[in-house]
């Protein structure tokens, strides 16, 4: 122990030197001011009342329904007509223009503000008319309250629910209570449209890590280098160094002691900031997150990366100025490498990443994150681009589905990458082997179609508010027919109007057709199949059996099973009336952020952001099992595989696990991951009993769905830019300390999650930003070890 005292004294001396630094006290004061400014922040929960632009999920349908309520005389005495006629005059004037067929664009904020204006005067409400609407239990309970039992907030909440009931299928599902931030007890002007659980996710995964990354990962590191850059050069002064070496100390331990002592500056600042944020989050926001304290050693570790450069530069040049300059150049190098890596991630890797797959006979097709459509060319062993992947493209390509062994169907939505409605109507595209896989237009798809599903009895088109079906024969008959007119005739207009809730007694003119189309009604050749009281509201997911005679919907928190009203032939089924609900189940859990439904022979799997997989009986929808996920993992997508009750589940660690039921115990078991890693997407083809696994950007493995044995691999050659990324940029990023990636480590520590949901594709796999937790820690540790070893060897052998 006595041998350690000299080194401990050196470290303590560094603490004393840090405390005597004026820059340290300036940093202290800045931290105290920041914490003092954050301390008055608080929150309160209040009922979700006013509409915001982000509450509108289907703006086209909302505009069309309001326009129909004004333009169609028969709708005047309906709930939607009452609401439409109660809007401000300027909005009604523009809605009349919509009803007359003019293309009038509304900002979502305009629509939201006009609906909020109805809260002040509820003369538009008629209790008798609203009895025909699908009202939530919350609304029924509020309607039963007397005038003396309801305050102003509850009255506005009730008004919002009445509007949502009258205009179904257009609003995002929101929690009944929202978070309201306060400052010094005064409400912020903006209300968060999130509940307490979502608020905690936002705080722990975005807000707190961002504060720590900027304050600790940038500002304090820079200040720390300014303060500590002189420690090593000062130690090398003849009088100082001779005095230190006169004691029984080792040179390399002396240097390491100075290095540890140099970290004192950042440690003293970090410990105040982190503990201050921890107390503010706990006392003011009720978030007692002890994991936040783990950011103290991580933040000092980040500084140690830069200080190791400063130490070596100080030894070599004995100049604080040069040490600061070299360290700043090193930081600039890290920024440049990070920018180059981000460029390749965003413009080379991500656009080429496969996210959907399908099989037609022996042909394999895939769509990419860059909205490209690929076909595997077995002769050249390369992906043939039918539609090119683009990093900044505006169009959206629907995941293709096969209608036979030589034909697939898809669609290109112009301007649909960030807007499901696109820039107008779009056709179902047929790609056939006999036509060298060139796209041929077929039927006009319903507006805002998001997913196509192929079944034995037809092709289903799922949009943001409904589901329509057509026969495969009808698709083939319209291919290449130049005389095919996507506009409907009078009979189909009346059918579309009826399916959309519009009166068929209204004048049969173009505006009726246009409004019906805007509402997402079935176009010519398609038939709406959802009952009028069944709506698709976020989060939504649809599962359809391979035969096409069973459909399970998840909408909001409602699970429903539907079947056709008649047992008929394929052609008759495609044109039959709406299906009927035969079973329902309400999920007793908070509203999930996303959901995936998968149907097997006798079970239904519901996978969401919950920490477990929920399994239901396919016929009755009664819960049968709940299987927990491995710690810190979330679901990316899920599918049913094989002929028995098995499911493949893709998790956020980019591994695929099979969920199966033990035939002896009847228990559901989540097996160990399959051998593939870095998995981007999974899919299945029931006709060929094939499980498709896309991994490592654009490689695909085809497995037998029953035995899970590999029978085919697709390994394309790398493009020029991919080769540069793999053989130059990849190694460069590997040997560079990944300090920027330590932000993901901090986010993972604070939130307890392994990934962050970013872009969720409707009816598709969730795109997650996966935190790199160990990689940056190992790369930075190796870098610090190499530079400190070099510094110790140089200091030990050099005669100063």
TrEMBL record:
Q: Which residues cross the membrane?
A: 23-43, 206-232, 252-280, 292-315, 321-344, 777-796
Instruction: Region Disordered: list its residue ranges.
Output: 476-499
A Pfam family assignment: ABC2_membrane_2
Q: Where is the composition biased (Basic and acidic residues)?
A: 476-490
Q: Does the keyword Transmembrane apply?
A: yes
Key words of the record: Membrane, Transmembrane, Transmembrane helix
InterPro entries (alphabetical): Quinoprotein_ADH-like_sf (IPR011047)
At the top level, the lineage of the source is Bacteria
- What this protein is called in its record is ABC transporter permease
Source organism per UniProt: Novipirellula rosea
């Amino acid at each position: 122990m006595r041998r350690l005292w000299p080194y401990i004294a050196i470290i303590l001396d560094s603490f004393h030197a840090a405390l005597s630094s004026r820059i340290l006290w300036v940093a202290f004061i800045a931290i105290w001011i920041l914490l003092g400014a954050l301390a008055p922040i608080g929150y309160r929960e209040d009922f979700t009342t006013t509409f915001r632009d982000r509450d509108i999920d289907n703006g086209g349908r909302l505009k069309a329904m309001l326009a129909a309520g004004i333009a169609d005389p028969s709708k005047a005495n309906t709930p939607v007509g009452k609401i439409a006629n109660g809007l401000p005059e300027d909005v009604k004037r523009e809605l009349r223009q919509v009803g007359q067929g003019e293309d009038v664009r509304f900002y979502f904020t305009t629509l939201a503000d006009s609906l909020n204006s109805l809260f002040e005067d509820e003369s538009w409400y008629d209790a008798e008319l609203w009895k025909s609407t699908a009202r939530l239990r919350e609304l029924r309970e509020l309607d039963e309250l007397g005038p003396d039992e309801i305050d102003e907030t509850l009255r506005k909440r009730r008004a919002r629910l009445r509007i949502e009931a009258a205009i179904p299928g257009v609003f995002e599902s929101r929690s009944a209570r929202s978070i309201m931030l306060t400052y010094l007890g005064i409400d912020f002007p903006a209300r968060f449209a999130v509940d307490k659980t979502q608020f905690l996710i936002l705080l722990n995964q975005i807000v707190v890590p961002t504060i720590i990354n900027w304050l600790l990962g940038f500002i304090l590191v820079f200040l720390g280098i300014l303060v500590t850059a002189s420690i090593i050069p000062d130690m090398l002064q003849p009088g100082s160094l001779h005095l230190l070496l006169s004691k029984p100390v080792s040179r390399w331990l002396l240097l390491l002691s100075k290095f540890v002592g140099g970290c004192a500056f950042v440690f003293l600042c970090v410990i105040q900031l982190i503990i201050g944020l921890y107390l503010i989050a706990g006392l003011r926001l009720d978030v007692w997150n002890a994991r936040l304290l783990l950011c103290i050693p991580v933040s000092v570790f980040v500084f140690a990366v830069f200080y190791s450069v400063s130490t070596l530069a100080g030894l070599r040049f004995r100049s604080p100025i040069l040490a600061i300059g070299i360290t700043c150049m090193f930081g600039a190098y890290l920024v440049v490498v990070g920018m180059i890596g981000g460029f390749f991630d965003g413009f080379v890797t991500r656009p080429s990443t496969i996210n959907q797959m399908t099989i037609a006979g022996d042909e394999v097709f895939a769509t990419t994150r860059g909205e490209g459509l690929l076909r595997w060319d077995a002769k050249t062993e390369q992906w043939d681009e039918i539609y090119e992947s683009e990093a900044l493209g505006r169009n959206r390509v629907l995941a293709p589905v096969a209608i036979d062994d030589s034909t697939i169907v898809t669609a290109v939505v112009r301007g649909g990458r960030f807007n499901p409605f696109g820039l107008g109507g779009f056709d179902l595209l047929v790609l056939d082997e006999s036509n060298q896989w060139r796209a041929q237009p077929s039927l006009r798809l319903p507006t805002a179609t998001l997913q196509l599903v192929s079944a034995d009895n037809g092709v289903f088109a799922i949009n943001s508010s409904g589901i329509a079906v057509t026969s495969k024969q009808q698709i083939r008959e319209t291919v290449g027919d130049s005389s095919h007119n996507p506009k409907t005739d009078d009979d189909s207009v009346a059918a579309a109007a009826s399916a959309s809730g519009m009166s068929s007694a209204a004048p049969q003119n173009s505006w009726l057709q246009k409004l019906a189309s805007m509402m997402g009604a079935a176009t010519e050749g398609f038939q709406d199949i959802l009952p009028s009281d069944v709506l698709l509201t976020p989060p939504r997911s649809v599962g359809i059996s391979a035969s096409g005679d069973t459909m399970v919907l998840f909408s909001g928190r409602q699970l429903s099973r539907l079947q056709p009203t008649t047992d008929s032939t394929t052609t008759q089924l495609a044109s039959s009336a709406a299906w009927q609900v035969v079973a329902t189940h309400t999920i007793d859990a908070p509203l999930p952020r996303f959901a995936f439904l998968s149907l097997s022979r006798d079970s239904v799997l519901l996978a969401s952001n919950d920490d477990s997989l929920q399994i239901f009986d396919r016929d009755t929808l009664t819960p049968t099992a709940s299987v927990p996920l491995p710690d810190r993992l979330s679901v990316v997508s899920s599918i049913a595989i094989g002929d028995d009750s098995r499911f493949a589940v893709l998790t956020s660690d980019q591994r695929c696990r099979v969920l199966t039921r033990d035939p002896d115990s009847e228990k559901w078991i989540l097996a160990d991951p399959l051998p593939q890693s870095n998995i981007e997407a999974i899919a299945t083809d029931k006709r060929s009993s094939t499980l498709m696994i896309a991994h490592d950007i654009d490689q695909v493995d085809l497995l037998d769905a029953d035995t899970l044995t590999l029978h085919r691999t697709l390994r394309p050659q790398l493009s020029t830019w991919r080769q540069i990324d793999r053989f130059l940029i990849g190694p460069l990023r590997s040997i560079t300390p990944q300090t920027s990636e330590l932000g993901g480590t901090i986010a993972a520590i604070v939130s307890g999650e392994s990934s962050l949901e970013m872009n969720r594709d409707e009816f598709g796999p969730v795109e997650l930003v996966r935190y790199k937790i160990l990689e940056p820690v190992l790369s930075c540790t190796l870098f610090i070890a190499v530079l400190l070893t070099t510094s110790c060897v140089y200091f030990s052998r050099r005669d100063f």
